Amino acid sequence: MEEERHFMKVAIEEAEKAQELGEVPIGAVLVHKGEVIARGHNLRETTQKTTSHAECIVIDQANEKIGSWRLEECTLYVTLEPCPMCAGAILQSRIPHLVYGAYDPKAGCAGTLMNLLDDERFNHRTSIQSGVMEEECREMLSSFFRNLREKKKKK
Questions:
Q1: Catalytic: 55?
Q2: pLDDT of 8-24, one tens digit each?
Q3: Global pTM?
Q4: Which of 110, 95, 100, 97 is nearest to 12 (CA)?
Q5: Is 137 annotated as a binding residue?
Q6: Domain ranges of the chain
Q7: Quick one: average pLDDT of 128-142?
């Protein structure tokens, strides 16, 4: 559990970078054989690109680093449960293990609304460890959206 907490802290650092940019504070890191090979955070507002979620960004970086679309010996750490798009990218990149912090009751596809990562109909499945540093990850998101609502009220 200590290893999971260590890498989730790195993902939280990435989420903090997103928050500084006014992005939804979600961060991710991809670990290969105990080493962080990719790190990223949400950039959707900055880039105005739908696929600029933290998970997709680190998957792209890792593909470049490893030189393959297959990320079969990697673990993805992300502060929020992946959405359908990101869960699909995880499956397509063959990531065998996902660790996430906060559950996503509105879009979570790694166990909350559905579990795309463990559906027998797909040719690949990803094991999931959820709730790692959940409180810290959830509070960061809750605080962000609370502040956003208050700013809108003042306008």
A1: yes
A2: 999 999 999 999 999 99
A3: 0.95
A4: 100
A5: no
A6: 1-144
A7: 97
